[in-house]
Amino acid sequence: MTPRELRAFCLSFNAAVEDFPFNPETSVFKVQGKLFALTNLDARPLTVNLKCDPEDAIRLRGEYPGLVIPGYHMNKRHWNTVTVDGGLPDRLVRELVEDSYDLVVAGLPRADRLRLDRP
């Protein structure tokens, strides 16, 4: 997956926006003000921090050592850093991004979740 594809995929989700609260290099993708992906699209290797169910986070780290690691500068229990251009199948990367988005949406107040469902 290229940086351009990663950015486009993150922005394809309902109400997803890109923000730069830390510096001009760090893209923060949010839904309803809550972070679901964080990356430097110019970095090599290309990595992205993604929210993950704690049990899945541990399993993924074991299945993909070096490519999925505890979240850099994040809560290590709930976040993984995923190397996007390092050999993981694009399908898996897309699933992990989508899972991160879904976990964040699930944690939103009910009224915010309902607003996301409206066209």
UniProtKB/TrEMBL annotation:
UniProt key word DNA-binding: yes
Any Pfam family the entry gives: YjbR
Classification via InterPro entries: YjbR, YjbR-like_sf, YjbR/MT2646/Rv2570-like
Keyword annotations from UniProtKB, A to Z: DNA-binding
Superkingdom of origin organism: Bacteria
GO molecular function: DNA binding
Protein's UniProt keywords contain DNA-binding: yes
Protein name in UniProt: MmcQ/YjbR family DNA-binding protein
Species lineage: Bacteria, Bacillati, Actinomycetota, Actinomycetes, Kitasatosporales
